[in-house]
Amino acid sequence: QVQLVESGGGLVQAGGSLRLSCAASGRIFSGYAMGWFRQAPGKERELLAVISRGGLNTYYADSVKGRFTISRDNAKNTVYLQMNSLKPEDTAVYYCAADRYTGRVPAQQLGAAGDFAYWGQGTQVTVSS
After folding, report:
1. According to the model, what pLDDT value does residue 129 have?
2. Which residues touch 22 (CB under 8 Å, ≥6 apart)?
């Protein structure tokens, strides 16, 4: 079991930045690829970014590529999402998640919510125009 707790959400003006954090406890954090998702009202949960177990490989959805950066600090059991140039359409609840395969599937192939077994409670991000 891995417990995940997100923080760092809030209200920001368009063009601004936020940094989300996700603190993990439980099983060995470095054994899991990590992902950030978001879900807006009435929409499906969207995968934004994935980072490999060691942090060397990252992958992004086209909607956030060039604006968001995923990173991790395995010594601190924490994964981050730096969000720049925020837009009103980025408004959503943001979730971090740990993959269910613990390295048996490359991070590059993690493309859906079903690939992740452990989830945080989410943190609200609201971008005003």
Report:
1. 94
2. 4, 5, 6, 7, 34, 36, 78, 79, 80, 81, 96, 120
